[in-house]
Specification:
The protein has 387 residues and is α+β, with helices and mostly antiparallel strands. It has 19 helices and five strands.
Length: 387
Amino acid sequence: MPAKKKQTPPATAGDFDSLVSTIVHIHQQTQDFATKAVNVALTLRNWLIGYRIVEFEQQGNDRAAYGERLLPALAERLSAAGLKRVDVRELRRFRLLYEVYPQIRESVTPELLPSLGAGALPPPFAAVALLKRESVTPESQIVETVTPQLIQRLSFTHLNELIQLPDGTQRRFYEIECIRGNWSVRELRRQIASLYYQRSGLSKDKAKLSAMAHAAAEAIQPAHIIRDPYIFEFLGLRSRDVMAESDLEDALLDRLQDFLLELGHGFCFEARQKRILIGDEHFFIDLVFYHRILKCHILVELKTDAFRHEHLGQLNTYVAYYKKHQMTPGDQPPIGILLCTRKNNALVEFALGDLSNKVFVSRYAVELPKKEEMERFIAQVSKEVES
């Protein structure tokens, strides 16, 4: 008689909960590892580009033939080769990154050397990565302690903020505080703008000031890193691939795009999650159309919450940007449409800016969808998506 097969006792609820929490932890840890790995690769790429530029400027055989034209000529050739974000301003940043942080060379591990190729690296790279120094000064101890964390904990966008600081001591202060507090780029900018370094220098109780600064600080999340414009262009992603904030917003934008095109009023689709650069900050416009009858751009911003005045301020900023940088001869000033919805309560605001042409305003009123029509559409789609 065959022996009875031993049955595995059913897992208890506690065991199952443990399995779920373990898998969630694995996912979070590996996601964090992946985003940090991408960030380190981007930082090293930009540092190496900066190194190569400096090396060419100092030792290149044909550097005299380029002179001041080096960076514009280089940007043009690199763009033609398909590289993104290699305009003259970015190349200057890469060069400055190398000049401010030469110690980043010490972060290259032996494992990374074969994949990069010896020709890409400065001569001291391999020696530093593969051999231990015989003598270590107190200053080099600080560098060796900080450098690995510098590129593992801080993104290139963090470093881009730090290299603009004029003083090395100030820069090291913000490096340490940023790493300690795991600050987002926005938080680092805020702390620099609030003169945290200067206030700390004047403060009698520096520990208390530091505790107060860190208590209210915004910590970086993996999503912050992967949504960094430097990162997703480095990976060849489109703005739309990474910028949707929620399933509801994404679904609404999909339907809204189709809805406006189907109206037949002259909407011509141009872009989704259109990235614009204002100063040193990037912003994303949800939808951009060109209206062939009104002869103007129409910028649409969707907010999946109740209307707030800052929403209108944000849209007006985009409208002003388009008016200054995107209008061509014959164009009318751009129009902004802000759509806000929460719990089936839709509010539509049109940011007309300084449109003074009465004929144009009249045509605008006829050609654009009516406010009530947009409210019904938003309420209907919100209900469908949320259900």
